[in-house]
Design goal:
269 residues; mainly beta; 20-stranded antiparallel beta sheet; 0% helix; elongated
Length: 269
């Protein structure tokens, strides 16, 4: 049996804590306490590194006799910088928050939303303002992010969504709310997986319907074919062609041989 001693850590005259040497090295490494005075131990602290300082703390916040919250001092600076919570009471940690840069504020979170024991949702505070501005989801449990939702301007509202529709681990479909009204007005796709946008559609008048289209038909990373749906009936009324790749439309026409905008027609945002 590990050496142990009952102690009064808070100086109230009651020995509400037990310290013990669990690894037998002659140094106390574990402390168990009754912090609320109800006669039940609800907090355990452990020195896992042997430096004489508690670096892992477990707490029973619900009073059911089981630890449901765990805090860890990962970098050994004396401050808890990662906290895991069992939100469902099944004995497994399903939500974690961490301070990855040591400024005292959580900037990363991970959650197991489906209860399979693996994290599938992740949140990041990328600018250090104390608010999560990027959330990414692994919807199929393969360990790769399938789509992400981002607040790119820091106003507290999501304005950009990216998705991996092919399962290759790379985003290929994008949606953007450019004016912050809460509605998507620009969508784009990388159809060949080369990392460049191949076709895009925009709602330039913000009425909820795409009216302007652009495509890169040469694969050089720049749009060269444009489509305009002036009456927003889901049909291209006029095409614009940049023949020399200078970014300017050289020719307007009513039809083209290969309509690269078929997948975008009739799309409403």
């Amino acid at each position: 049996m590990a050496d142990e001693e009952y102690v009064d850590l808070d100086g109230d005259g009651y020995k509400e804590s037990v310290v013990s040497d669990e690894n037998g090295d002659g140094q106390y490494d574990t402390v168990v306490s009754d912090t609320d005075g109800d006669g039940q131990y609800d907090t355990v602290g452990v020195d896992t590194t042997g430096d004489g300082k508690v670096d892992t703390v477990g707490v029973d916040t619900t009073g059911d006799g089981n630890v449901d919250t765990v805090g860890v001092d990962v970098d050994g600076d004396g401050n808890i910088d990662a906290v895991g919570v069992d939100t469902t009471g099944d004995g497994n940690i399903d939500y974690v928050e961490a301070d990855t840069d040591g400024d005292g504020y959580a900037d990363f979170a991970a959650a197991d939303t489906d209860g399979d024991g693996d994290a599938d949702a992740y949140a990041y505070d990328t600018n250090g303002d104390g608010y999560y501005d990027a959330v990414e989801y692994d919807t199929d449990g393969d360990g790769n992010v399938d789509y992400g939702v981002y607040d790119t301007d820091g106003d507290g509202y999501a304005d950009f969504v990216a998705a991996d529709t092919t399962g290759d681990g790379q985003y290929d479909t994008f949606a953007y709310d450019s004016n912050g009204d809460g509605y998507v007005d620009f969508v784009a796709e990388d159809t060949d997986g080369d990392g460049n946008i191949d076709v895009a559609a925009a709602d330039t008048d913000h009425d909820g319907y795409a009216d302007t289209y652009a495509a890169d038909t040469t694969g050089d990373g720049n749009p060269d074919t444009y489509g305009f749906d002036y009456d927003e009936d889901g049909e291209i009324d006029e095409y614009g062609i940049d023949e020399d790749g200078d970014g300017e439309i050289d020719e307007y026409t009513d039809e083209i041989d290969d309509d690269v905008f078929d997948d975008f027609l009739d799309d409403d945002f």
